[in-house]
Automatic annotation (TrEMBL):
The keyword Ligase does not apply. Pfam families: DUF1541. This is DUF1541 domain-containing protein. InterPro entries: DUF1541. It comes from Brevibacillus formosus. The keyword Signal applies.
Amino acid sequence: MKKWKLLSLMLITAMGLSACGGAAAPDVLEQVEIVPKPTFTVGSEVILKASHQPGMQGAKAKIVGAYDTTAYSVTYTPTTGEPPVKGYKWIIQEEIKNHIKQPYNPGTEVVLKADHVKGMLDASGKLDTANTTTVYMIDYTPTTGGGEIKNYKWVTEDELSPAK
């Protein structure tokens, strides 16, 4: 298991920046458990059902990593002074500052250590939902055009379907 964790960390680090604000923080990837036999294996192609961003739904994607954790939708106030972001999907357990091992309950107030988008790092937020699941890091090209988005964090298993 440790070999796969190290291999995954090396692969993600080598891939560089993500569309979600930079490569996943190494300390997060060291803490999250890699799924040894996920439904969608690393390297497999999938179709996105998620609509987190324009051009995401229906796009083809490649699985870069699969992790066992708790995924949360969160409402947070960006540190940039912009209005609150409601229902952001997803941050994971390991992206909560001073996180505990047990999943948090919806309604818990937290400080984020995720840096998916500008203003997220160190932002205060409230967890809207909690879902203990497999989360995936993906590479995809939006259906709206533009370049490939690498190391997008995160989509859940129910937001993916097999590519045909």
